[in-house]
């Protein structure tokens, strides 16, 4: 099922409105703002993974000429616990405040304990060295097993596990337990001909955006602050910063800069409240830019995980029962993506009997932040590896086996609701037919298949459309453009208004000039903000129809809008006295006919469409070194209607590349004290151009009925399948089932050598 | 980064003058700076003076003369890659140097800097050792030649005195029966640090038997090591599968590798064997080609 | 420490500035000269976001001291376009949607410029090898490689 509506603009791939600025170096990113008198702020970070902070003495640092402000935890108010929505996840603002600046305890290596602002970076560095912090080091818990042990040292003594039948009396590092069940799993396993069970693990990995976090803050004497920063959501920055500082939202204005990647990691805050306090104390603008090392040590990685799956199936190839146990590291504060992980783990299959249990586990590592389809890739790695193994055990083609068990319209999702039209079956069928799936493999090569899923989300968006007197229009939203969303907004506005794409500019506004928008994240921007843009454009169309009716002296209902023109009813048109009035003409005469046109829309979007994808991966394994090369890759995805085709493909390719990195080489390497040993791009090993092949894409467009043009959301699903697609391909190549990521050469070789003798 | 004094002398004499107080004014030599500046920013060194040698003519020499390849201490890796004769005659050294960093880094990094950084994983070092390279070292009022083998004494430490600098590196150009090769292993295709690197130079006689050989292995010990045991396994023999298997087995016992973020000790030993086999095969093939 | 005087040529224009000896060329370009088109992703030579061309060689500006720029010819992203027209590389990056967030783009354009000046007809493999010092986390490199191939073809065509 695909969409066969004919559009003028939607589905094309024009150059983006901000394109020239981005290729000439003029686009201003987080660190690109320079203000007169600007100070440089730096953060002092904990050298311990877990320690009580006994005292902080800043007096020597204060005396250094050029040091104009110092803040520590005591400069922040004590915030009461309350959950706040950040777009892809919720965060407890008390935790957030303590993550921004440690109070009584440092909870991970790199945790902020103090900050300074000085006239130069060199002086600020000197000041950091002059701050004396007395620590009492505490034993650190660095992995799920030791965190869950009976006698584990506790990160937060007061924390009690949520989700148990009764409130436990004792503290724990398990913040929550979540469960989902259906049917009778035991009976399902008993009825199964084949039952398999394995445990999988994935390491801590980082979003790896190339632009480090950066902020410039100014604070007037009346405590009105302006913050310029690279964020996925200026309004979320405003809300969270105001909570951490205990200020009103209206006393903070957030201007989103261009953003150099986020992938979920820039849906929260780190520097913003600190910079405001430094600016307030010094009376000068303060700029803070993280180093790459700080980005690795102190900002949102995603959870390391352990996932155990038991799967039962009939000989005929029907999955009869499943059991999944997921444990995700949350880092130093509660809130791993365990809930979406549990909701996603079995989501692609129609299974009558299952039990899913998830644990949110605290460890002395940085607090995790959202990362593209938060929680889903680790779950899919385990499940799709098991599905692959089951197909293999049953002697069935892996796509055929998936098709026989796939969810489709009307199936009940593992997390509850019935699916509206979805594209999993179409994607699997496309995969089976793709030339890639038929192509012969060379020696030491193997092919893997895996499925991925993401909910996609709606949430709040607002759009304004200002019509200019020259017949152009400007779309204003507060959804930062991370991957070409200005172009998508302009395309949808052009389509709705019926005017040329080139006549539309799309801009990203700040929290004072634009209406509320939630973050660019959750694959919601083209869906939800797009919906607001379409409604704002329809608002303009309505206004123009009414204006034309007024000019013509007829009833507005008699005026239709087609191809960018107000058209009078047939009886008037034939008289030749009333030629159609087009967009430009109406815009030009606006001043004389009743004022300019401004379209507005504000909504909480409902009906985000679930997005399924299927990836095909060919690898070549060097049997002597264990090195895995991805030699061919195809991403197939139901994106709903693709608004800007090239950027949709780009999302699919970029997500696949990140997933391949996660599968092959990326991982935080910790020493025994909880210090990350590879906080640099050199040793963190994200894929470089030479590591990847061209990535073929197939866009399947099952329209989302809840969106005027059928948009689902694209960005997250593509990072979900690659982990298992790569592992399944390695299995196909060498016959070894690897359950622990990354599949770096030492790991792969260790699986090959015993087999070799 | 700490503040320091920056000087860029334009002659060897002026550089020597500056070296005179290099003990009282802790000095570091700056050439490409691709390791030094990163390490200074990380607080690993805080010299009071940086002595930039790039403006000294002698450090910019790059030529082949009298059977020797001469590479000035300020010559960046990219220039070496563009030197056709050097690439043709010393392919092992050239391919090792070409592996140092990205294209951007190649435009700055120098071979001598790679030596002085004294990383056990430095790509150029095993190849230079196998090639029998040596360096010209000058102090305020003295001068000496040192072999590359043994120049690094520990990670980050060399035989260079605090008031010395290296002017150039020389290596004998192989004769018509001699050829060389270098390979390293990294998890990523580029932009990575060698888990193990193996350099070899070998000479075949008319019958294809190995008449002379030098092999050196990087990243299996605190410094790159010569591998006489590998040489012993092939000397006098034809470079066939049996000889390669002996050599690979011998390579596994070279050094005392550690487990770290870049690989486990066992993995390093295994890879040393694999690479030794591959490098010797390539070098022997090149030697055969050359004697044709 | 007193500042040092540097006289250099940036995008064809004689430029003078004062800098502390420890300042990087990247810092001087961005903070003192306002040329913020050159980006910083790591400060350790591992991402290529700061790529500039110094005396014809592609270089990480974060690995060069500002004082070393004295007497050198420096090209940055701000000098790539003509006053009224984008460079073909810039045009092809736009038309091939070779950027998503765009933070890596200035560095990639400089790297591509250096590549095509040296090798006007690179293969896909040569492009991937040359661009391996430039990390892009958004695109998976596919569209970047295609944009470079197209730019190379266009530039060759322009010369023919
Ligand atoms: S900032 Fe220079 S290479 Fe990353
Ligand atoms: S486009 Fe974002 S890093 Fe390349």
Concise account of the structure shown:
Chain B has 292 residues and is of the alpha+beta class.
Give the integer mean of the pLDDT values of chain C: 96
- Termini Cα gap of chain A: 51 Å
Q: How would you spell out the order of helices and strands of chain C? A: EEHEEEHHHH
CATH superfamily of the largest domain in chain A: Aldehyde oxidase/xanthine dehydrogenase, molybdopterin binding domain
Number of helices of chain A: 23
**Helix fraction of chain C?**
25-40%
Structural class, judged by helices and strands of chain A?
Answer: alpha+beta
Radius of gyration of chain C using CA atoms only? 16 Å
Question: Largest interface, and how many residues on either side?
Answer: A-C, 60 and 60 residues
Main beta sheet of chain A:
7 strands, mixed
Q: Which small-molecule ligands are present, each listed once?
A: FE2/S2 (inorganic) cluster
Describe the overall structure.
The complex is a heterotrimer of chains A (757), B (292) and C (160). Chain A is of the alpha+beta class and 757 residues long. Chain A folds into three domains: 36-138 and 213-289, Aldehyde Oxidoreductase, domain 3 (Alpha-Beta Complex), CATH 3.90.1170; 305-456 and 609-756, 2-Layer Sandwich (Aldehyde Oxidoreductase, domain 4); 458-605, Aldehyde Oxidoreductase, domain 4 (2-Layer Sandwich). Chain A contains 23 helices and 30 strands. In chain A, strands 3-7-1-15-12-13-14 form a seven-stranded mixed sheet, sandwiched between helices. In chain A, helix 3 (93-100) crosses helix 7. The longest helix of chain A has 28 residues, at 525-552. Chain A is globular, with a radius of gyration of 27 Å. The model of chain A has no long low-confidence stretch (mean pLDDT 95). With 292 residues, chain B is of the alpha+beta class. Chain B folds into three domains: 5-52, Uridine Diphospho-n-acetylenolpyruvylglucosamine Reductase, domain 2 (2-Layer Sandwich); 57-172, Uridine Diphospho-n-acetylenolpyruvylglucosamine Reductase, domain 3; 178-291, 2-Layer Sandwich (Enolase-like, domain 1). Chain B is 33% helix and 24% strand. Chain B contains eleven helices and 14 strands. A five-stranded antiparallel sheet of chain B has the order 4-5-10-6-7, with helices on one face. Chain B has a four-stranded antiparallel sheet with strand order 11-12-13-14, with helices on both faces. A three-stranded parallel sheet of chain B has the order 1-3-2, covered by helices on one side. The radius of gyration of chain B is 19 Å and the shape is globular. Chain B starts with a strand and ends with a helix. With 160 residues, chain C is α+β, with helices and mostly antiparallel strands. Chain C folds into two domains: 4-79, Ubiquitin-like (UB roll) (Roll), CATH 3.10.20.30; 88-156, Orthogonal Bundle (DNA polymerase, domain 1). In chain C, 34% of the residues lie in helices and 16% in strands. Chain C is built from five helices and five strands. Chain C has helices at residues 25-32, 88-95, 105-118, 124-130, 142-159, and strands at 4-10, 13-19, 51-54, 57-60, 73-75. Chain C has a five-stranded mixed sheet, sandwiched between helices. The model of chain C has no long low-confidence stretch (mean pLDDT 96). Chains in contact: A-B, A-C, B-C. The interface between A and C is large, with 60 and 60 residues. One FE2/S2 (inorganic) cluster is lined by residues 40-43, 45-50, 60, 62 of chain C.
């Amino acid at each position: 099922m695909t969409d066969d509506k004919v559009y003028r603009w939607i589905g094309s791939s024009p150059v983006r409105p901000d394109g020239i600025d981005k290729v000439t170096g003029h686009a201003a990113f987080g660190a690109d703002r320079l203000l007169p008198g600007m100070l440089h702020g730096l953060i002092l970070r904990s050298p311990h993974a877990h320690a009580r902070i006994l005292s902080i003495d800043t007096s020597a640092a204060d005396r250094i000429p050029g040091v104009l402000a110092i803040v520590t935890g005591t400069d922040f108010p004590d915030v009461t616990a309350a959950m706040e929505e950040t777009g892809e996840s919720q965060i407890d603002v008390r935790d957030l405040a303590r993550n921004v600046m440690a109070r009584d305890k440092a909870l991970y290596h790199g945790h902020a304990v103090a900050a300074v602002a000085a006239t130069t970076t060199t002086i600020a560095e000197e000041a950091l060295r002059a701050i004396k912090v007395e620590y009492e080091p505490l034993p650190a818990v660095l992995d799920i097993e030791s965190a869950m042990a009976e006698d584990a040292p506790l990160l937060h003594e007061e924390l009690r596990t949520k989700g148990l039948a009764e409130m436990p009396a004792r503290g724990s590092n398990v913040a929550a337990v979540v469960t989902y069940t259906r049917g009778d799993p035991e009976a399902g396993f008993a009825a199964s001909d084949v039952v398999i069970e394995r445990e999988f693990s994935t390491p801590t990995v980082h979003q790896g955006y190339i632009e480090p976090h950066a902020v410039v803050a100014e604070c007037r004497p009346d405590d009105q602050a302006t913050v310029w920063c690279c964020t996925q959501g200026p309004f979320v920055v405003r809300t969270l910063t105001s909570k951490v500082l205990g200020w009103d939202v209206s006393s903070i204005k957030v201007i989103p800069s261009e953003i150099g990647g986020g992938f979920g990691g820039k849906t929260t805050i780190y520097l913003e409240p600190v910079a405001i306090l430094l600016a307030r104390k010094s009376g000068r603008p303060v700029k803070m830019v993280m180093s790459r090392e700080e980005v690795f040590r102190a900002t949102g990685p995603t959870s390391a995980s352990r996932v155990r799956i038991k799967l039962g199936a009939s000989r005929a190839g029907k999955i009869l029962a499943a059991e999944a146990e997921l444990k995700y590291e949350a880092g130093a504060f509660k809130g791993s993506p365990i809930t979406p992980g549990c909701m996603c783990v079995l989501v692609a299959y129609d299974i009558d009997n299952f039990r899913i249990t998830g644990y949110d586990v605290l460890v002395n590592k940085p607090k995790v932040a959202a990362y593209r389809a938060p929680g889903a890739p680790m779950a899919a790695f385990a499940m799709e590896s098991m599905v692959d193994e089951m197909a293999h055990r049953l002697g069935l083609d892996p796509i055929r086996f998936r098709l026989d068990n796939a969810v489709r319209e009307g199936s009940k999702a593992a997390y509850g609701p019935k699916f509206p039209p979805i594209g999993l079956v179409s994607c699997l069928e496309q995969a089976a037919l793709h030339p890639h799936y038929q192509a012969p493999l060379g020696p030491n090569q193997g092919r893997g298949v895996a499925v991925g899923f993401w909910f996609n989300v709606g949430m709040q968006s607002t759009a304004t459309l200002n019509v200019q007197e020259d017949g152009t229009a400007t779309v204003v939203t507060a959804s930062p453009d991370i991957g070409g969303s200005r172009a998508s907004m302009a395309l949808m506005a052009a389509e709705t208004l019926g005017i040329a794409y080139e006549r539309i500019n799309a801009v990203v506004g700040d929290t004072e000039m634009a209406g509320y928008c939630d973050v660019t994240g959750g694959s919601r921007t083209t869906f939800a903000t797009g919906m607001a843009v379409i409604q704002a454009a329809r608002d303009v169309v309505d206004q123009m129809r009414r204006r034309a009716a007024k000019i013509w002296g007829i009833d507005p209902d008699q005026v239709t809008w087609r191809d960018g023109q107000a058209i009078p009813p047939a009886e008037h048109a034939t008289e030749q006295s009333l030629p159609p009035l087009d967009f430009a003409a109406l815009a030009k005469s606006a001043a004389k006919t009743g004022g300019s046109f401004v379209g507005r829309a504000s909504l909480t979007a409902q009906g985000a469409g679930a997005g399924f994808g299927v990836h095909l991966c060919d690898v070549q394994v060097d049997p002597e070194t264990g090195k895995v090369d991805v030699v061919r890759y195809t991403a197939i995805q139901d994106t709903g209607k693709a608004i800007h085709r090239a950027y949709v493909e780009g999302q699919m390719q970029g997500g696949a590349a990140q997933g391949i990195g996660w599968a092959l080489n990326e991982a935080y390497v910790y020493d025994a004290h909880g210090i990350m040993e590879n906080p640099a791009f050199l040793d963190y090993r994200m894929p470089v151009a030479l590591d990847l092949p061209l990535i073929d894409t197939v866009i399947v467009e099952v329209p989302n009925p809840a969106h005027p043009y059928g948009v689902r959301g694209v960005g997250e699903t593509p990072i979900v399948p690659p982990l298992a697609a790569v592992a399944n391909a390695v299995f196909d190549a060498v016959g070894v089932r690897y359950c622990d990521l990354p599949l770096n050469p030492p790991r792969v070789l260790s699986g090959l050598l015993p087999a070799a003798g | 980064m700490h503040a320091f004094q920056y000087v860029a002398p334009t002659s060897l004499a002026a550089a020597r003058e500056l070296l005179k107080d290099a003990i009282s004014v802790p000095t570091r030599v700056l050439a490409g700076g691709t390791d030094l500046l990163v390490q200074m920013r990380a607080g690993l060194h805080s010299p009071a003076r940086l002595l930039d040698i790039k403006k000294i003519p002698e450090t910019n020499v790059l030529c082949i003369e009298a059977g020797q390849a001469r590479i000035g201490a300020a010559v960046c890796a990219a220039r070496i890659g563009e030197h056709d004769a050097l690439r043709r005659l010393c392919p092992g050294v050239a391919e090792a140097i070409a592996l140092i960093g990205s294209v951007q880094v190649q435009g700055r990094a120098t071979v001598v800097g790679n030596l002085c950084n004294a990383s056990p994983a430095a790509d150029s070092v095993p190849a230079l050792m196998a090639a029998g390279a040596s360096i010209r070292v000058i102090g305020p009022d003295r001068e000496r030649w040192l072999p590359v083998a043994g120049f690094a004494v520990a990670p980050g430490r060399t035989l260079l005195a605090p008031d010395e600098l290296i002017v150039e590196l020389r290596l004998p150009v192989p004769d018509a029966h001699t050829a060389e090769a270098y390979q390293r292993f990294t998890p990523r295709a580029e932009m990575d640090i060698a888990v193990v690197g193996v350099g070899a130079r070998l000479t075949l006689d008319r019958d294809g038997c190995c008449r002379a050989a030098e092999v050196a292995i990087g990243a299996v010990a605190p410094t790159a090591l010569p591998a006489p045991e590998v040489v012993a396994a092939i000397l006098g023999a034809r470079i066939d599968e049996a000889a390669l298997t002996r050599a690979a087995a011998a390579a596994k016992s070279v050094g005392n590798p550690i487990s770290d973020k870049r690989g486990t000790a066992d993995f390093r030993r295994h890879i040393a064997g694999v690479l030794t086999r591959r490098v010797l095969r390539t070098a022997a093939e090149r030697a055969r080609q050359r004697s044709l | 420490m007193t500042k040092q005087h540097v006289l250099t040529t940036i995008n064809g224009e004689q430029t003078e500035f004062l800098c502390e000896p420890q300042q990087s060329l990247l810092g001087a370009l961005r903070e003192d000269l306002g040329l913020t088109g050159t980006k910083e992703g790591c400060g350790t030579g591992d991402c290529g976001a700061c790529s500039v061309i110094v005396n014809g060689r592609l270089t990480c500006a974060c690995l060069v001291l500002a004082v070393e720029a004295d007497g050198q010819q420096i090209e940055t992203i701000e000098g790539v376009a003509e006053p009224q027209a984008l460079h073909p590389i810039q045009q092809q990056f736009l038309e091939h949607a070779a950027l998503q967030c765009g933070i890596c783009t200035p560095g990639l354009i400089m790297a591509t410029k250096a590549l095509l000046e040296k090798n006007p007809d690179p293969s896909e493999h040569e492009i991937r090898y040359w661009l391996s010092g430039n990390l892009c986390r958004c695109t998976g490199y596919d569209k970047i490689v295609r944009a470079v191939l197209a730019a190379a073809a266009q530039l060759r065509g322009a010369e023919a």
